[in-house]
Amino acid sequence: MSTPLSRRAALRALTRFWADDAGLSIFSALLLVFVFVVPPLLAPGSGRRVAGDITYALLLITGVHALAGRGLARMVLMPVAVITLAVYLGSRLVPVPEPWVLGTGLLSLLLFLAVVLGQTLRAGPITFHRIQGAMASYLLLGVIWAHAYALLVQLRPGAFSGPVSAADGPRAFLYFSFVTLATVGYGDVLPVHPVARSLAMLEAVTGSLYLTTVIARLVSLAVAPGGKTGGDSSA
């Protein structure tokens, strides 16, 4: 049985995870597994996993804590993170309308994006791990839009045509989200509702702008005269 001391030690370790640049690379690897490896292995309609929800909550709270050691950011971000996670995790115990669950999940992912971008773009040398953090932010954009599409389908059934099932939640839209983010568009899943089309256009534009701004900016700083690069972390 865990003691309060051991729990505090675990939280401190997770906070150090975010403070260390190497944590960005680890988080990027976790996202790759979550997006590209896990979904095909899950049965349709299998829903969320308790272990996954707990890991998600711990990473978010400690990430916001590491980012929000800056006065106003702590007062704004931490309460929002706690409230969104309370609704998201509480839906396992009490009935919560699915749009509320998806909405709070979407908000928590936006906080995750703020955490990762904040750690990636903070002052300090541009390392290999910072580049990995930028890649993780790009993957987060795809997951965020998948949640947005799933939320839209809950509010407007039939917003998409093609082999997608609302019962699978955001997981059903990961494929469509990433082919849209990468501006591939195979055409097997189509947005038919005006809001769905607007979201898809916005995601395609965001994906292109992200690659030409954030990634290019980091790389240019890394190779600029006087800039530092390397694989070692920089807290």
Question: What fraction strand?
Answer: under 5%
In the predicted model, the low-confidence regions spanning at least 5 consecutive residues are 230-235
Report how far the terminal alpha carbons are from each other.
Answer: 32 Å
**Counted beta strands:** 2
Radius of gyration computed on alpha carbons:
18 Å
How many domains in all? Answer: 1
SSE blueprint and pairings:
Blueprint: H1 4-19, H2 22-41, H3 50-67, H4 72-90, H5 98-120, H6 128-155, E1 160-161, H7 174-181, E2 190-191, H8 194-223
Antiparallel strand pairs: 1-2
Helix pairs in contact: 1-3, 2-6, 3-4, 3-5, 4-5, 5-6, 6-7, 6-8
Key features?
69% helix; 2% strand; 235 residues; mainly alpha; two-stranded antiparallel sheet; disordered C terminus; single chain
Task: Explain the overall architecture.
This protein is mainly alpha-helical and 235 residues long. 69% of the residues lie in helices and 2% in strands. A two-stranded antiparallel sheet has the order 1-2. The radius of gyration is 18 Å and the shape is globular. It starts with a helix and ends in a 12-residue tail after the last helix.
Q: What's a concise summary of this model?
A:
The protein is mainly α.
